[in-house]
Write a structure and sequence with these properties.
eight-stranded antiparallel barrel, 16% helix, two-stranded antiparallel sheet, alpha+beta
Length: 264
Amino acid sequence: MALDEYRRKRDFTKTPEPDGAAAPRPRATDDRLFFSVQKHLASHLHYDLRLEWKGVLLSWAIPKGPSIDPSDKRLAMQTEDHPYEYGTFEGVIPEGYGAGIVMLWDRGTWTPESPDVDAALRKGDLKFTLDGYKLKGSWVLVRTRGFGSGSKPSWLLIKHRDDWAGPVDITEFAPLSVKTPEADFADILAADNPAVWRSNAPAKSGDAGKLFQRIIAQAVAMKTADTKVTKDGHPTKSTKRRATPSPKATKSTKRKSGTRRSPR
C-alpha cells in the first residue's frame, strides 16, 4: 500500500503527524492538484516538496531548498509517500523519526505539464507548473544516477526560465510560514496551541533529548540573531529576515540566458 512505509516509520502515540486514516481527497475537477513545501528543522535543515497524486503526496527532501534561479540544480531525494492531510501540517514532532519543527513554508496547486504523470515518473522527467504563494511557474524534476538507490532515488529540482524565475534566493527572501502569519521556527515551537499539538512534549533526556535541545537552540538563534542554519545544522550569521513572499521576477532582476554573475 502507498502509505505502508510512512506508517512503519512513525509511532502515532508519540507524534502529532496525521496517520493517513482519512479517506483520500477526491480529484479536483479542474485538474489542479495540491502541493506544499514544508521547511523542516530536524537533525539538518531541509525542505520537503509534496505533490498530490492519486490520493497521496509524492515527496522529495531538498537539502538546500528550492531555487527560482534556473542555473541552480537542487538535489531532491525522493522519500516515502505521505497522506494528503500531511500537506498542511505545521508543528512540533517531539521525538522519533523526523523529530524537530515543521513549518508550512509554501502551498498552492500544481498542474502537470507531462501528459502522462505516471509515465513521466517512471522515466524520471516530470515537468509541472506551480501556483503557490512563493513558488510559481514551470519546473522539472529529473531523476539522476547519483545519490540514492532502489526506493529512494535522487532527483534534481530545476526552475525553467519564465517570468517567475530570477536570481533571488527565495529561501532567504521569504523564510516564514504561510500558515501562521509571520511565524518562524521559534514562534511555532513557542505557540501555546498549535493546530497539531497534542499533549506530547519533546524528549528531555537521552540522545533524543539532546537532539531536540540542539534543535530548540537553533530555532532560537535563527530568530534572535538573524541567522540561518548550515547544511551541518549549525547557526551562522545571515542577512536580515524578510517575511514578504516572492514577487514576480521582473526583467530587470532576471539574469539573461547564458550570462553569469560576477563572483563577490
